Amino acid sequence: MAEKKWVYVFNELDQATKYVGGAWDDVRGLLGGKGANLFEMYRIGLPVPPFFTVTTEACNAYLAAGEKFPEGMWEQELEALKKIEEASGKKFGDPSNPLLVSCRSGAKFSMPGMMDTVLNIGLNDQTVEGMIKLTENPRFVYDSYRRLIMMFGSVVLGLPDEAFEEPMDEFKAHKGAQADTDLTAEDLKELSEIFKKVVREQKGFDFPQDPIEQLRLATEAVFKSWNGKRARDYRRAENIPDNLGTAVNIVTMVFGNMGWDSGTGVAFTRNPSTGERKVYGDYLLNAQGEDVVAGIRNTEPIEKMVEKLPEAYHQFMQICELLEKHYKDMQDMEFTIERGKLWMLQTRNGKRTARAAVKIAVDMVNEGLIDRKEAIKRVTPKQVDALLHPQFDEEGKKKAKKEGRFFASGVNASPGAAVGRVYFDADTAERMAKEEGQDVIMVRPFTKPDDVHGMLAAKGILTSEGGATSHAAVVARQFGVPCVVGASAVRINLEKREMSANGIVVKEGEWISVDGGSGEVYLGKLELTVPKLEEQKDLLTLLQWADEIARLQVWANADYPKDAQRARSYGAKGIGLCRTEHMFFEPERLPIVQRMILAETTEERKKALDELLPSQRSDFAGLFEAMDGYPVIIRLIDPPLHEFMPDEEKLLEEVITMRVKGETEGLVEKEKLLASIRAMHESNPMMGLRGVRLSIYMPEIVEMQVRAIFEAAADCTKRGIVVKPEVMIPLTGTVNELKWIQPRLVRIAKTVMEEKGVNFSYKFGTMIEIPRAALTAGEIAELAEFFSFGTNDLTQMTFGYSRDDAERNFLVLYVEQGILPKNPFQTLDREGVGKLMRMAVEDGRKTRPDLEVGICGEHGGDPESIEFCHIIGQNYVSCSPFRVPVARLAAAQAALKYS
């Protein structure tokens, strides 16, 4: 039996492809995204240093075996090392001609939470001397050595960054050095000894001098990082499975810190913030890669490289064009120039802002690189949502500047605007956001992968250092968090928990406003405005393409004409839910509603309802006018009556106070009201007298509502408006309820049309929100012409959870502990609630083949739930107006996935 292959060398892509069956996605799964792209760049002839990759399968086997290398893996890694020795003409650990390597993690999906890169593995006290003889550049060699000890100590040995940063800052201050590049060879040699002492004191053993031991420990560190907190947090945020594992990439070192004819950089083939078709990035001369990404030194824009290294610059521009055409997507690349020679270290599909994602997708269709279907797949619903995020009004910013509230400016790294309280570390930011419910702006000199959990919790991010490709910028863009980086005027004092700029001090907990679009930061709170969809041409184009592909229509939940108008402007093709009881809560109507509820005779109740009818008719007319030509589903009154009444405890307090004070005026009326409210008391009102039960108990209410609906529809029809009213009877549990109430309401509808002398199509249907209704859907469809799933209540009743209580008490714990995969009130539970829905659709259509089916619960705007609605054959989803664009894209993506 052939030995299991755990390690692939740079020229073995064909073997890896054959092993997984040929699909590129599976190759990425085996070799990780970073490794797979290294292999592919080598295959197409780009300058890639010799390398090998330890597979993700090895990582999973290592973790499953209790952190032990799988049999044969380490031996294969040492054999692979020999092959890159041959290719490079150098030998690992040989003082006369040492091979140095970097160690990088690389999962299938790019994960900022994974292990940081370790450079210069293979250096020790002996190979340092050999490198000096070979290069005749002691400064470069000692710079590389101190970097290895520093990176290895923090990344592999787990020491805090401060253990190295603090002595380094003290050393630079002692030497009068502003930047790392100001240190001499002797300085860096001395610093290397200081760093070795840090390792000895904090770990109790010496920095490993054996290069093979360095490689082994670094490989293990990559595997272990897969289960680190920051990696788990990231996977949870991005819904990445925990069983993928990470690959280990061992790459021959090339050096950007060998002098001023060397350098390193990170660049994108297009602007990741705006989507502009222009290479965008940063580079540094005489530096190694982490200097650019970490933002420790201020970088130069990539276009300036042509002035210092023109040959390498022009070669890199050609490679950018080649890679974008090859991968048919915007690329994020890392490169190093060693003594004028360009080396490519990485390419991957670049993270981008929501705005850039949409523009790049649309532009690439127009350029002929991709088709419309691929463009729709490229943009995520989350990105569409981010495009409609609040922004600061320009006039508001001008006013703030006049008031002296401008604080600082930096690089506009991730668009959008955020207002929040300042916190200076990730743990505090996360705690204040989650436990205290605060809006948080996380402020750091620069961020690292350890900070990801705080960045996810924050409304906005501000750093004083770093550039457009720094860690903070990349992560913020990915998650749609507004971010300003490199605000160099800002001085952050982490000990005092404060920052200052231009003489202004901001302490932790104080409010600031961050504009990730302009790169500006303001003191206090600026007012946020919502962008207009009609002004975003690229997004409108993409959504138009989505509508052409989607089978599901997207409707909206809207209770008032202004909501319906907004929904229509966002592309809604109907109103899937109008909650009529919301109209009853209007201040001028509530007293009439209360009088109607407290009426002791039918005549008194009808009199109050007659007063309400004109306002209800006006409400419905406004909806029909706003949705001219589209269906409007109006749900008859649903909540328990006590919700319309004054608070019982507050009223009791008023009565007791009046009695104690001997006040008699109005006391009898209040006592009578209190008695009536007590008489209405229900132990479980959400399962009591509401919905269709209330309609049967007090039919006068819904009779008035149906008359108002049809009078409004008739009046609109006479004015030339195309009306499509659909009346929804809520909370049906048995077909007999419909048999009792629906014929009465249909008679009223027909009577009104006869009185008005008009005809128009209409439907009567029901809301499926009780499990029994789903189980008996075949019977219910005998009367109901449409079903609308009220998945908020259907989820409550199926799980037996009170939504409010569950989310406040145990639901978060259930998700964290894996008892539930997701919050079922946010994403549909397919196995339970979904099974009831599927059954209801199938049985309902057996009875009524043309049965219209939709959903109007909160799940109607959730992409994963929308996908399920597509699968079970619904006609539409209905969501809040603001989520309509997101739902339109999600509906198209579901159609593409299951076409």
Automatic annotation (TrEMBL):
Reactions mediated catalytically: pyruvate + phosphate + ATP = phosphoenolpyruvate + AMP + diphosphate + H(+)
Pfam assignment, any one: PPDK_N
Entry binding sites for Mg(2+): 769, 793
Species assigned in the record: Anaerolinea thermolimosa
Domain PEP-utilising enzyme C-terminal stretches: 535-894
Cofactor: Mg(2+)
Enzyme class: transferase
Domain of life: Bacteria
Occurrences of domain PEP-utilising enzyme mobile (ranges): 438-519
E.C. no: 2.7.9.1
Annotated active site: 471, 856
Alphabetical keyword list: ATP-binding, Kinase, Magnesium, Metal-binding, Nucleotide-binding, Pyruvate, Transferase
Family membership noted in the UniProt record: Belongs to the PEP-utilizing enzyme family.
Binding site for substrate: 579, 635, 769, 790-793
Coiled-coil segments on the chain, per record: none
Keyword flag Transcription: no
Protein name: Pyruvate, phosphate dikinase
InterPro entries cross-referenced by the UniProt entry: ATP_grasp_subdomain_1, PEP-util_enz_mobile_dom, PEP_util_AS, PEP_util_C, PEP_util_CS, Phosphohistidine_dom_sf, PPDK_AMP/ATP-bd, Pyruvate_phosphate_dikinase
rRNA-binding keyword on record: no
GO molecular function terms attached to this record: ATP binding; kinase activity; metal ion binding; pyruvate, phosphate dikinase activity
NCBIfam families: PRK05878.1, pyru_phos_dikin
Pyruvate phosphate dikinase AMP/ATP-binding domain: residues covered: 30-66, 79-300, 314-367
